[in-house]
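[User]
If only I could read backbone structure tokens as easily as an amino acid sequence. I have put the entry right below:
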Amino acid sequence: MLKETYIARMKEMAAEYPGAVFIVVTRSAGHVLSPSWGLLHDYKDGRINWAQYTERFLREMNCDPCIEEMKKIWELAQKKDVFLVCYEKHGENCHRHILIDIMNRRFGADAPVICSRCENDCPDCAAVRQDIVSNQK
């Protein structure tokens, strides 16, 4: 199952989910599914809002290498727990939520987004999905 967490909780989640795969999708780690430095700085420095960030991030992810990587992650997540990991804590805007939404839309029927905090399809996760859907219009 595809899940998400943040770096400060990785050890805790690894203990709870032995055998899980943790994929750090940060720019500092050089992962292909991370936002560009320009996009990241524009958002962190307040030059763009979350809707603008989301729109630009979706464009950045719409390329063959990113789609291929998402497909690999999705396929692995059908066999075992796979966590996308970044720095932002639960409840903060983070590209890992957008990535999960992209993968669910591209590869899954209506697969739920399970958050690492509550292990359910929680209202916070639903709010994140609704924000993403609204921003895509």
User: Anything to note?
Assistant: The beta strands are 2-6, 21-24, 82-86, 114-115. The two ends are 28 Å apart (CA to CA). Confidence is low (pLDDT under 50) at residues 116-120, 131-137. The chain is about 50% helix and 10% strand.
